[in-house]
Amino acid sequence: MTTLKERLREDLTAAIKARDELRSSTLRLTLTALNRAEVAGDEKRELSDAEVVQVVQGEAKKRRDAATAFSDAGRTESAERELAEGAVLAEYLPAQLSDEQLAAVVAEAVAEAGATGPQAMGAVMKIVRPKVEGLAEGGRVAAAVKAALTGR
Hints:
Helix 2 (about 20-40) packs across helix 4 (about 75-90). This protein has helices spanning about 5-15, 20-40, 50-70, 75-90, 100-115, 120-130, 140-150. The radius of gyration is 18 Å and the shape is globular. By secondary structure, the chain is an all-alpha fold.
């Protein structure tokens, strides 16, 4: 089985051969971010697939944030480009939990923590975060926990 990083490299080669500018530039930037993550710290190391997924998620989040900023500034063409790059990166990420699945995980964590009000958000987040790591964005998780604790 090939690693995610190898798959990214192979797909970059294929995109270059196919002259797919959007895909090749997106994958190049992502591989650069991976290389930067590998050399961060005292010595170079190979990233695990889970760490590669975290870097790709970070890159996808940057694209979403940039798209939002561009749309707010009235630069729709740039926003569309960022969203298209985000769609390319989404192909390399695990499927996200649906709202119902996330709510079920949160409800289970609330019961496990014995939480009753908003002051227990930290305790519930400690339980939920490892269970949904890579499967749900942090903002969505926090919103779901807050809604479960406030009864909304």
